[in-house]
Design brief:
Shape of chain A: elongated
CATH class of chain A: Mainly Alpha
Strand content of chain A: under 5%
Mean pLDDT of chain B: 87
Structural class of chain B: alpha/beta
Helix content of chain A: over 70%
Distance between the termini of chain A: 49 Å
Helix content of chain B: 25-40%
Number of strands of chain A: 0
Number of domains of chain A: 1
Strand content of chain B: 25-35%
Distance between the termini of chain B: 38 Å
Shape of chain B: globular
Oligomer: heterodimer
Largest sheet of chain A: none
Mean pLDDT of chain A: 93
Number of helices of chain A: 10
CATH superfamily of chain A: MetI-like
Largest interface: A-B, 25 and 32 residues
Strand order of the largest sheet of chain B: 6-7-8-3-9-10
């Protein structure tokens, strides 16, 4: 393997991490408030608002039912409007975030539902308002579950970022498609796949470790 | 003026198109400094009742007045401030599992806008009160049930409440731990003058600490009065059931085919004389002792017996008058089930 290929692979790793973490961070910036709203407005939430819940629920289901590759293509005009071009790593972050946010909202809502209702009731009995319950009870008590969700989401987005390679998304997936699919250069494709597996393993292991260490329940 | 005044409290729930009346026109006054028991079988509505006292449940009808203030007239913010004046503890303790003991006790203070430094100082004070100072860095999962309930009590007391609501607070604990938690509650009542409301299904909890008791049955108030009076002379079926029904589950009285049952209660002093033995010898009446028990009522030993009498109205009258003469209270035609 020559120097040029190694540089290309290193840049691929960089772009993949950039897309994955860029989209996971922006995805949470959008998805976490959505998840909180979903939980709060839900039937057994802190402040049930059936209309808001149903609208939110519908939007989330619609976006989640569109396969990522199609979403990627559907969003090209929007992406171009937002970042000026429809290819490359930065452009890929746009559909990744749109895809991730509803997923994150569901994961967050699910984590909040795992919190013991008695603890929420106790907080209410102590005079806490809904926002204090979100910040001081739900986000704290659901911490371990939220971190697990974060790890899973990051893994999913790593896979999706590689998928975006088929339409010129950049990163390791892009390299795999260009060399492996168009040029039949199997060696490079195998190397990119191995690199993706290694990155995935690292993300998963670090994430699991952090969420386990954050848990004060079993010691 | 009563510190807690409950007037015509009614709570209805809608469930699958049916209306369920959990509470039906409850009237109750709880005086300042009381230790007030609310007892009932499960499903009687007592949990809903205690949740109405701090408006965790909004009544369908009726009013709850705390210190003369009608909770129905408060806006959300005023209601939250009112709740911080009412502490509450629960069956499952409901501590924040991801926070240590000190942080848990600080929680209600921070929620009510107390500065972190002051909150920690106050939290340490109340932890000392419940004798758990050495555990302030521990997490709830590292503590026993009794210790967790002590933390919950400290947390409830942190904001200096006037009222402490206990919702089945000892139901998840073993008898010995129950006793120590109840002693702690009594101590809190005596030293801090906090009014305590205890919700329970166990008569032993009521007789151990409560001065007054209300019996809830099917969402209605069946009977209310001093613990001593209700224990000695229960009028409602629910009270009778709660006093003696629980302990006879091995041989339900209804299974014993004897129509002539009486319930007798004797105090400490009448226990010196072998009343039962003397009576049997004197009247030649072979009574059947169906159940016998002693309890600690307000620090005094009180004994209870349920007797099956031999046939004949005259022997029954003789037995009753013999026992009454010796200062023993007798309840006739006592039915449990």
């Amino acid at each position: 393997m020559n120097e040029q290929v190694i540089i290309m692979l290193l840049e691929g790793i960089r772009d993949t991490l950039y897309m994955t973490f860029g989209s996971v961070i922006l995805g949470y910036a959008l998805g976490l408030p959505m998840g909180i709203l979903l939980y709060m407005s839900g039937e057994d939430g802190l402040k049930p608002k059936p209309v808001i819940y149903r609208i939110l629920d519908l939007i989330i289901n619609i976006v989640r039912s569109i396969p990522f590759l199609i979403l990627l293509i559907l969003l090209i005009p929007f992406t171009r409007l937002l970042v000026g071009q429809s290819y490359g790593s930065t452009a890929t972050i746009v559909p990744l975030v749109i895809c991730a946010a509803p997923y994150i909202a569901r994961v967050v809502d699910n984590s909040f539902h795992e919190v013991d209702e008695g603890v929420i009731e106790a907080a209410r009995a102590m005079g806490a308002d809904n926002w204090q319950i979100v910040w001081k009870v739900l986000l704290v008590e659901a911490r371990t579950s939220l971190l697990t969700g974060f790890t899973i989401t990051t893994g999913v987005l790593l896979g999706y970022s590689a998928m975006s390679g088929t339409v010129g998304g950049g990163g390791l997936g892009d390299i795999a498609v260009r060399y492996g699919y168009y040029r039949w250069d199997t060696d490079i494709m195998v190397v990119t796949v191995i690199l993706l597996i290694v990155i995935f393993q690292i993300i998963q292991n670090v994430g699991t470790k952090i969420s386990q260490q954050s848990d004060k329940r079993k010691r | 003026m009563s510190i807690i005044e409950i007037r015509n409290l009614t709570k209805k729930f809608e469930l699958d198109g049916h209306t369920i009346t959990a509470l039906d026109g409850i009237d109750l006054s709880i005086e300042k400094g009381d230790v007030f028991g609310i007892i009932g079988m499960s499903g009687a509505g007592k949990s809903t009742l205690v949740r109405s006292i701090n408006y965790l449940e909004t009544p369908t009808e009726g009013d709850v007045l705390i210190d003369g203030e009608n909770l129905a007239n408060l806006n959300e913010k005023q209601l939250r401030r009112m709740r911080s004046r009412i502490g509450m503890i629960f069956q499952n303790f409901n501590l924040l599992e991801q926070k240590n003991v000190l942080e848990n006790v600080c929680f209600p203070l921070e929620v009510n806008g107390v500065k972190k430094k002051d909150a920690r100082k106050r939290a340490k004070e109340v932890l000392q009160l419940v004798k758990l100072s050495e555990k302030e860095k521990a997490y709830p999962s590292q503590l026993s049930g009794g210790q967790q309930q002590r933390v919950a009590i400290a947390r409830a007391l942190a904001t200096n409440p006037q009222i402490l609501l206990c919702d089945e607070a000892t139901s998840a604990l073993d008898p010995q731990t129950t006793f120590s938690i109840l002693s702690l509650l009594r101590e809190i009542n005596e030293t801090l003058g906090i009014t305590i409301v205890i919700i329970t299904h166990q008569m032993s909890v009521v007789t151990e600490v409560c001065k007054k008791v209300a019996i809830i049955d099917g969402g209605r108030l069946a009977e209310t009065g001093t613990v001593e009076k209700i224990f000695r002379n229960p009028e409602s079926d629910a009270a009778k059931e709660l006093i003696s029904g629980k302990e006879i589950r091995f041989t339900p009285l209804s299974n014993l085919d004897t129509g002539r049952k009486i319930r007798i209660v004797f105090k400490e002093n009448s226990a010196y004389e072998p009343v039962m033995a003397n009576m049997i010898l004197k009247l030649q009446a072979p009574v059947n002792i169906l159940k016998a028990d002693t309890r600690n009522v307000g620090g005094k030993a009180v004994g209870e017996m349920i007797l099956g009498l031999p046939e004949g109205e005259s022997i029954k009258a003789d037995i009753i008058s013999y026992l009454t003469e010796r200062g023993i209270s007798v309840t006739e035609d006592f039915e449990n089930e």
